[in-house]
Amino acid sequence: MQLNDIDKGSRRIRLFVECGLREGKLVEVGADSANYLFSVMRLARGSVVHLFNGRDGEWSAEISDLGKRRAVLACIENLRDQSYPPDLWLAFAPLRKTRTDFVVEKAAELGVDRIVPVLCAHSNARRISRKRLRQRAVEAVEQCGGLHVPSVQDLATLEDFLVGELGDRKLVFCDESMSGSDAGFPSDCEAERCCILVGPEGGFSDYERRILREFPGSIPVSLGPRILRAETATVVAIALWQRFYGDW
Ligand code: SAH
Fold first, then answer.
1. Which among 212, 222, 232, 230 has a CA at the least distance from the CA of 179?
2. Phi and psi of 200, rounded to 5°?
3. CA 230 to centroid of ligand 1, rounded, Å
């Protein structure tokens, strides 16, 4: 590979960092990012990559020091102003590890502000690693050109989530028992501050379905005539919401 090709490629590399970004700022990144730049992408001093932190937009930055364990980058120029996805949350019952990773990755790509794992009666995963899921979200946003990494909340029971966290936010309740009914995805309701809720592989229990239907602000929806896997339902519901109310 020619040096030019490396430099061309390096312009597309995006790294999420926690610190503030401004012209001339020196940003030190830790072993994971340094190893990625050095060993995986085989960059060298002088290569230019992009940095973002979820607050200060996107910046070009030149690598001024690079080793396997540490890299230092100097911010050059602000390339894009900070932007945020719509005020959409995703609440979902965690699945097995790689499927949960998939849900978080797709939610970050499709554009949500907050991801809330909720424990349901039929959940077959009862623990999550918030750190791991946050990292999946960071990687997805680095890849897709987004500027905002959704927050990942602690696992909460469905009831605690409804009573304690949801507030007066509308709840788009994906109810598999309505599949095939006329209650398609609503295209005409006031649903700006919204949370999509997708249940576990085993579906919602009768008790959960009852409290969800009675919950103020709940909008039970069908996602079509077939029962979808939970991770498919998540992608479909976010896509439909973005189409009707979001920033697509
Ligand atoms: N095992 C259950 C299906 C669970 S599907 C059964 O056989 O009935 C997992 C989750 O995806 C559901 O809880 C629901 O939130 C969502 N979902 C899947 N298909 C759906 C559909 N057609 N309409 C609405 N929600 C759906």
1. 222
2. -80, 175
3. 6
Task: Tell me the one-letter amino acid at 28.
Answer: E
171 in ligand 1 pocket by Cβ < 6 Å? no
User: What spacing in Å lies between the alpha carbon of 219 and ligand 1's midpoint?
Assistant: 15
Helix or strand holding residue 75 (H, E):
strand 71-80
Mean pLDDT over the full length of the chain: 92
203 CB near ligand 1 (under 6 Å): yes
What angle separates helix 97-110 from helix 230-245, to the nearest 10 degrees?
10
**Residue 5: band (very low, low, confident or very high) from pLDDT cuts 50, 70, 90:** very low
Q: List the structure tokens of 171.
A: 């709840």
Residue nearest to atom 9 of ligand 1 (CA): 230
CA of 206 to the centre of ligand 1 (A): 13
Widest distance between CA atoms in the chain: 63
Q: What is the pLDDT of residues 88-106, one digit of tens each?
A: 999 999 999 899 999 999 9
Closest CA to 156 of 210, 209, 116: 116
Ligand 1 in reach of 165 Cβ (< 6 A): no
User: Do strands 170-174 and 194-198 pair parallel, antiparallel, or not at all (unpaired)?
Assistant: parallel
Report helix, strand or coil for 136: helix
- Atom nearest to 179 CA in ligand 1: 22
